[in-house]
Amino acid sequence: MTTPTPLSGFPEWLPGQRIIEQQIVERIRRTFELHGFAPLETRAVEPLDQLLRQGETSKEVYVLRRLQADAEDPSDAGLGLHFDLTVPFARYVLEHAGKLQFPFRRYQIQPAWRGERPQEGRYREFTQADIDVVDRDDLPLHHDVEVVLAAADALAGLPVPPVRIRTNNRKVCEGFYRGLGIDDPAAALRAVDKLDKVGPDGGVRLLTETAGATEAQAKACLSLGEINAPDAAFVERVRALGVNDPLLDEGLAELTAVVEGVAAHVPDVVVADLSIARGLDYYTGTVFEIALPGFGLAIGGGGRYDNLASAGTDRYPGVGISIGVTRLLGVLFARDALTVSRPVPTCVLVAVPDEASRPGCDRVATALRRRGIATEVSPSAAKFGKQIRYADRRGIPYVWFPGAGDAGDEVKDIRSGDQMAADAATWSPPEADLHPVVAGSGG
Amino acid sequence: MTTPTPLSGFPEWLPGQRIIEQQIVERIRRTFELHGFAPLETRAVEPLDQLLRQGETSKEVYVLRRLQADAEDPSDAGLGLHFDLTVPFARYVLEHAGKLQFPFRRYQIQPAWRGERPQEGRYREFTQADIDVVDRDDLPLHHDVEVVLAAADALAGLPVPPVRIRTNNRKVCEGFYRGLGIDDPAAALRAVDKLDKVGPDGGVRLLTETAGATEAQAKACLSLGEINAPDAAFVERVRALGVNDPLLDEGLAELTAVVEGVAAHVPDVVVADLSIARGLDYYTGTVFEIALPGFGLAIGGGGRYDNLASAGTDRYPGVGISIGVTRLLGVLFARDALTVSRPVPTCVLVAVPDEASRPGCDRVATALRRRGIATEVSPSAAKFGKQIRYADRRGIPYVWFPGAGDAGDEVKDIRSGDQMAADAATWSPPEADLHPVVAGSGG
Fold first, then answer.
1. Residue A303 lies in a domain
2. ipTM of the complex
3. Cys-Cys link to A183, which of A212, A311, A428, B310 (CB 3.0-4.6 A)?
4. Which is nearest to A84 in space by CA: A301, A402, A357?
5. What's the predicted TM-score (pTM) here?
6. Is residue B113 less than 8 Å (CB to CB) from chain A?
């Protein structure tokens, strides 16, 4: 076969980058658990009718087919890969409701797939780290605050630039559009969500063509989207636009509570931004977008979905937020903004004097591993200089020489060249050398 | 919508089971890192021509198609989900060879997909935990021993019954078949691999029909498969069958070295078992099967593949072993053989006296989390009795009452009923309560 080439939109990391990803995911996971979210995974596939309930994203779904389809066994026909972790989670809650305790809190860190055209920050396969809370019948608004605080805490624990969580509320937009007299507020929201791509003139055109807005109404929609504030000051500016509607009032009250609720615990993280629409149709109230200021990309988002998990008279409103792990890493890797001290877990290489001594070298490695020191045994009994160069090329800081000294074994720090007597039953490296260390390089 | 139902072959765990899975995966991961294997992940998809190089598994591949296929952008046409982690790893090595250090050692814990008929222990989506070592041009046999020792160490660290690693060598079988005079040793190997399903008579029939064997030759093949031993005693029994071939000699020497190499470090783990064939065509020497004695199922396998990762004159022989995480858990969950002390990470629930006090309760939670204690704040300011019952239902061992005592806060162990004064800046639970504890129940 010929040398394979990368697949556009399906990123793969080199070993050092993968260690960075793993440590980042691990820290996110730990923070989510500290906030009382339980781990959960769902299968990668959902029936297409589940995936297509949302409309707009249908074009991006990857459908599965068995290469040699089995007409006698249609049980895996009509399946597609999930495009986010919220739709599968809502399905999971409905399916297992009888065995869950509510409010049910879970985090979920898994890949998702979308058949989009690849571009910077847009992948066809990408890992997301989500938290959500769902309850039966009603879910108090303080959970909208809670998921932001947990996500902000998780992100603050990473070696990445500070984030901003831009927050809006669908009720503000829909209430405002309704109060303006626009016939189809949902279509208006979809048009406003495209403003980034089509610009203000294109936005006015979309609003008049798809949502039945007059030009004056369309311009008022754009004015609403220009409002943002780090505190409740946005309310007055919305009021100044002179639109009245009960849903608008409800949305403004909710958005104020979320912005003030977060600001009471962490400053400078949340900002009310009335341009935020979010592409997914299932949101019904609060919506979030996690921005990485200076990088021009959202690296996450989320919101409140009151109707996603419903079956018959059972209703499970939820709220959640998602950190786009692959997107975050992709943008930082492209700027060399994350470093790792070595691309292997190995701390010690046990040198092998000759192949007959390999079992003894293996026993040294076992003794070191038992005390939590990642160790491998040299792949060959080459000259010691060559074995040291092998360790050096792989970034392994220590080489162990069994029986090298008068008193027994010796260990060399190959960075400094220092070599000293050592006993595999007691020697430990400095804490900083035990594991690969990930850091932001500020690059 | 109606209540969703499970998809056959796509298992999903309940929250407590998922905590067990996560801790098991975490322990496997740590052991693999202690042995100097670096983490790696590959994308879920491969071009079909990569996946179909192996022949037999082609019928099981899930092919992807975009729901609204884009004729202008065929870049994601002809992709399928990987059915193991070895084929993608071999492709990764070829693709990134210029950026890797050899021998390259990695572990990989990810799902794989096969469109097989579901049955006990056979899933359509399943997680595997693999380690592999590949080198350029040649890979010494001691790595075959190394991967068994690392996998055995990983499995010994789990609360699961002791495993047996049944080992064979393709060269023994192929050399033996060749020495017998069978025309198509590869076909003979495939026939022998089906013995489990077809029985001895069916095996003789398959061998005569598909591999061109005489009945006497077929019976000799079956006799070879009946040989097993925990040490090198198998060699004499093979020799007693009176077949001679240089490849057989090579295989017997390799198999002896692997069995004795492992036994020198861990007793009672490895056994030479000449019935082991393994279904995948890419193995060229050592093959492994991880058995869970008493459960009647293999929970992993692996082997040596000298030709899988080759492009032009570049050749990267490899050896690896795979733990079937989903299969292991499936069989143990079905027998209630694993338990967890609670199905949530949460150690403390902070009670909320009234909604106006929620921000103060959030601050208590923040203080506890900062010291690594997983904490959540009560979802409602209900009567304390109801809040305690909420904690009890979820398995949370402690409830914190802000300002409940004369001296400040109090904390209650809701299992014993003991309540005492506590300061969120200093209080810690006993170590055993800090995280959910997973154990084997011996069931």
1. no
2. 0.95
3. A212
4. A301
5. 0.95
6. yes
